[in-house]
Amino acid sequence: MEFVTRFFDPPKQSYYLFGPRGTGKSAWTQRFYSHSLRIDLLEPDQRRRYEARPERLREVVEATDPGTTVVIDEVQRVPELLSVVHALIEAKRGWRFVLTGSSARKLRKAGVDLMGGRAVIRSLSPFMAAELGPRFDLETALRQGMLPLVWDAEDPADTLRGYIGSYIREEVQAEGLVRQLGAFSRFLETISFSHAQILNVSNVARDCETGRKTVEGFVGVIEDLLLGFRLPVFTKRAGRATIAHPKFYYFDCGVFRCVRPAGPLDRPEEIGGPALEGLVAQHLRAWIDYGAREHDLYFWRTRGGSEVDFVIYGPDVFCAIEVKHVGRVHRRDLAGLRAFHDDYPEAALMLLYRGTERLRIDGVTCVPCDEFLLGLTPHQAHRAAPDGPPTYRWNSRK
User: Fold this and answer.
1) Neighbour order of strands in the sheet with 15-18
2) Angle CA(238)–CA(296)–CA(358) in degrees, nearest 5?
3) How far is the C-alpha of 99 from the C-alpha of 137, rounded, in Å?
4) What is the mean pLDDT of the segment spanning 350-364?
5) Among 308, 357, 317, residue whose Cα is nearest residue 335
6) Are strands 364-368 and 348-353 parallel, antiparallel or unpaired?
7) Exposure of 369 in the CB half-sphere (CA atoms within 13 A)
8) Max Cα separation, the chain?
9) Measured on CA atoms in the order 142, 146, 150, 153, is the torsion positive or negative?
């Protein structure tokens, strides 16, 4: 597939670029920093060289011109290099460091300071629909996800299976992140049933036949490896009691589909619905990471059972979004949004569904999901791309 221009806008100073493997960090830095000094720690020779003598980095960098950009790929594999990077930044000779990684776990475990403020932290997500433009297809995205590694593959399904296996082998096993590899593999499958659901660690531990503390540790591992994330509940100025547990999502709906067991007894909506919700979740997170970092993403659920899938809250946007894997909208589908509006009349209300028409029902804007995703571009809270689908309003106050 031809090169896809990403929405990621790099900062001018030194920065970390975190993201799961397969999101295109190496390809992007190779293209964007084509004339940089590049150190790839995935290469065994380079890794051994810098593990044995981290100060070698100073000698290599000081041989370059001031102002050179230095890209260190998978920096978490040799965390000792960060103290050298810190010293070189403090030397103020104009070198800029781009430090990519698929996990911050080893950095924290080694007690490494992330150089607070001297190198900012950014993330690279799977593709957004608007990055693919006309090549985006909702059915394909729901089936194989949005990882560049998978979109470029001749056999996406086989690539996804290998992706999960390589993560377990190269990241979890090789780095010694868990002691019970078999139990962790079972956990990855079991927690897939919690994708787009309230996360109850005790229930997951029971289904895994593993201790609760072990499962809590496993959840931390997949978060640190950026394979999954927890979504907190929205509680600001709560007018009624809300639940305390977060929701869980795999970072990519294709990865979810790959690890989620499926058989003849599974109804399509049991997998299709969570996959669609996960696809929206990963797009909203990317939109925030790329251009609206002062905003946060939540969900909302009361103890009485009223629920909204997503709440975006920040200085420019306050919007509640419900996702429905249906082709037609019924008024009962709007119940959670209407309950949210009773408590937060300032919020805009939006429902995403699998139909083809844009509707306005009881104050709720109903938008076809593929139209919404194609119009979701960073830095544009209130309009779509000039050649994209029609605009939609995020915030009822504007």
Assistant:
1) 37-40, 69-73, 96-101, 15-18, 120-123
2) 90
3) 33
4) 96
5) 308
6) parallel
7) 28
8) 67
9) positive
Q: For the residues of 175-229, what is the DSSP string, one character each? A: TT--S-HHHHHHHHHHGGGGBTEE--HHHHHHHHTS-HHHHHHHHHHHHHTTSEE
Q: How many CB atoms lie within 10 A of CB 316?
A: 14
* 247-250/228-231 β-pairing: antiparallel
> What domains are there in the chain, each with its CATH number?
15-123 (3.40.50.300), 129-375 (no CATH)
**Pair type for strands 15-18 and 318-323:** unpaired
Quote the tokens at residue 209. 């036949």
What's the pLDDT at 183? 84
Number of H helices, E strands in the chain: 16, 14
Q: Is the pLDDT of residue 216 over 90?
A: yes
**Nearest-angstrom CA–CA distance, 354 and 275:** 13
Q: pLDDT tens digit string along 98-143?
A: 999 987 776 666 555 555 557 888 999 999 999 999 999 999 999 9
Which residue in the block uniquely carries the two structure tokens 């696809």? Answer: 279
Cα Rg, the chain, nearest whole Å: 22
Q: Measured on CA atoms in the order 371, 347, 247, 197, is the torsion positive or negative? A: negative
pTM of the full structure: 0.91
Q: Where are the beta strands (DSSP E) in the chain?
A: 15-18, 37-40, 69-73, 96-101, 120-123, 197-198, 228-231, 247-250, 296-301, 307-313, 318-323, 348-353, 359-361, 364-368
Q: How many residues does the chain have?
A: 398
| Residue 18 structure tokens | 């975190």
Specify whether the CB–CB gap between 313 and 296 falls below 8 A: yes
3-state helix, strand, coil in the chain (%, to 5): 40, 20, 40
CA distance 227 to 102: 9
Residues pairing with 313 in the sheet? 296, 318
